[in-house]
Amino acid sequence: MDIEHWRREIDDIDAELLRLLNMRARLALKVGAIKQAADIPFLDADRERSVLQRLQEINDGPLDERAVGKVFRRIIRESRRLEAGIAS
Fold first, then answer.
1. Peptide bond into 62 cis (omega under 30)
2. The whole model's pTM is what?
3. Domain residues of the chain, as ranges?
4. pLDDT (tens digit, 0 to 9) for every residue of the chain, 88 residues total?
5. CA-wise closest residue to 87 among 47, 45, 22, 40
6. Angle at the Cα of 22 (from 21 to 26), degrees rounded to 5?
7. Architecture of domain 3-85
């Protein structure tokens, strides 16, 4: 198999990641609406820590713990931004 094959595989995975990230974002919007209605703060540091910890524990590589943390911290931050945008 040549480099183009692997690049197509990566492109397919990127498209799937984008689809899943948008699904996650839609769920974050629903959570944000519930938080707003219940007057719950958008930032839940304990929940975010537990999500990151769980993901780092189930990670089997080759991404290391630091990389997983960085990627998912960004995803969580963007989700929180969407949630808070409901209140704007």
1. yes
2. 0.87
3. 3-85
4. 899 999 999 999 999 999 999 999 999 999 999 999 999 998 999 999 999 999 999 999 999 999 999 999 999 999 999 988 875 5
5. 40
6. 120
7. Up-down Bundle (1.20)
